[in-house]
Design brief:
signal; four-stranded mixed beta sheet; alpha+beta; two-stranded antiparallel ribbon; single chain; 4 helices
């Protein structure tokens, strides 16, 4: 019995020593998860790539095309006539669509704005400088050395850049259909007495129908960047701490964020969703999160990858505008590389199945 108690005591002491050696939380609650939050005071000289001109889409309109089809129409009905009293007819107009209604697209070009940002390219410095006096009477010049404490101010640089005010879009204009008609003779009074069969008469007409509706092609114009060298505070010193978080927040969690079609611009309802879900977590605890954006498999693979990265960046930029440090945020676009169902390229799926793949997720990172 004494040996058993001694073994249990040694096991408890070993577990406590391991927790202390690893810096893990003391007295953790069963079923709870913790993330490690550490800050350090470090300075570094970095080269920062600044986007001076954003990427955007240009749209090219492909007009609708029409094709001509032929149809056989009845222009005179079959009838009967009699020798003594022939049939009589009356002529009526029969309407048909000579050209179906179509549509055309007009491009509303992207619009841009201007802004600038000032960077500190070298920090302020100070120190002692030694100077030999010009009118020194002594043969030994070291007798006439003056020590001066000199301060040099920091130097800065202002970098202008162009911002995207609104992306290119299209407006749909409906073209009306064109009506036409043909003449048709119908029986007014049938023939009597000796009956003679008169066959029906037909006519071939031509009309134009829509072959391919109007559409647009999207071309992505790459962003332009400029590199700026500056000295920054990389990390602020602090105390190592463990923060308790919900365990499910360590795994990817889908948040109902939506964007404008073929755009990374957040809708007003999506901004409210971010305010209600992500901001409380970041303001309550000093944790870091990763934003992950995904698209469905429709469209060009490279375009989807670029669009998902822009959408993840849009969420991070919005959080930064709300006062969250960018060092606590990470953005990653996966395009169509992590589909949740079978709807890959070439697979026929419903809009609902594709919608399951168009998602934005977040998870808490352990520093």
């Amino acid at each position: 019995m004494k040996k058993l108690l001694l073994s249990i005591l040694c096991l408890m002491l070993a577990s406590l020593s391991y927790v202390q050696a690893q810096g893990l939380p003391e007295n953790p609650a069963p079923g709870k998860c913790y993330v490690k939050c550490i800050t350090k005071d470090e300075f570094t000289q970095v080269e920062e790539t600044l986007q001076v001109y954003p990427s955007y889409n240009s749209l090219e309109v492909v007009p609708a095309t029409f094709k001509t089809v032929e149809e056989t129409v009845l222009v005179k009905e079959a009838t009967e006539k009699y020798i003594y009293t022939p049939a009589t007819y009356e002529t009526v107009d029969v309407a048909y669509i000579g050209k179906e209604a179509g549509n055309r697209l007009e491009v509303i070009p992207a619009s841009f704005g201007r802004d600038s940002r000032t960077f500190e390219t070298y920090p302020a410095t100070q120190g002692w400088e030694y100077k030999v006096l010009d009118d020194c009477p002594s043969v030994n010049k070291e007798d006439c050395v003056a020590a001066c404490f000199v301060e040099y101010p920091a130097t800065s640089r202002e970098v202008p850049f162009t911002t995207l005010a609104s992306n290119a879009s299209t407006t749909n204009i409906t073209t009306p259909e064109r009506d036409a008609s043909y003449k048709k003779r119908v029986i007014k009074t049938p023939a009597r007495m000796d009956k003679i069969d008169i066959p029906a008469e037909y006519k071939t007409i031509t009309r134009q129908v829509v072959d391919q509706p109007a559409s647009s092609r999207s071309n992505t114009i790459a962003a332009r960047s400029e590199t700026v060298t500056r000295t920054i505070l990389a990390k602020k010193g602090g105390i190592t701490s463990w923060e308790e978080v919900e365990c499910e927040l360590l795994n990817p969690n889908v948040i109902p964020i939506f964007y404008e079609t073929a755009s990374a611009r957040l809708t007003a309802s999506s901004k409210r969703t971010i305010d209600e879900t992500l901001l409380p977590i970041l303001n309550d605890k000093p944790v870091s999160i990763e934003i992950m954006a995904h698209t469905d498999a429709r469209g060009n693979d490279d375009y989807n990858m670029s669009l998902s990265q822009q959408r993840a960046n849009a969420v991070v930029n919005y959080l930064v505008s709300k006062g969250i440090s960018r060092s606590r945020l990470s953005a990653k676009g996966y395009g169509e590389t992590r589909l949740k169902n079978r709807c890959a390229n070439g697979v026929d799926c419903s809009d609902g199945e594709h919608r399951n793949n168009r998602r934005t997720e977040f998870r808490i990172l352990n520093n």
